[in-house]
């Protein structure tokens, strides 16, 4: 139940960020988590993967872009 509540809260947070135009900020948060090995590229939501991939390639870390 706690996991479901977390997912619902995260969903509404994503909607809030998208409506404010904060996709770039959210992509950078995922990039930071990927670099610190807290998350994997496959954990990134599909709608955000292009921005995250672009940032990782720009940082010459394309090796981290794996499905």
Q: How would you characterize the overall build of this protein?
A:
By secondary structure, this protein is mainly alpha-helical. Helices cover 63% and strands 0% of the residues. The chain has 3 helices and no strands. Helix 2 crosses helix 3. The model has no long low-confidence stretch (mean pLDDT 84).
Shape: globular
The percent range for strand residues is: under 5%
Structural class: mainly alpha
| Counted beta strands | 0
Largest sheet: none
Estimate the helix proportion, in percent.
55-70%
Ends distance: 28 Å
Q: Would you kindly provide a brief summary of this structure?
A:
The chain is mainly alpha-helical and 67 residues long.
Topology, pairings included?
Elements: H1 2-20, H2 23-35, H3 49-58
Helix pairs in contact: 2-3
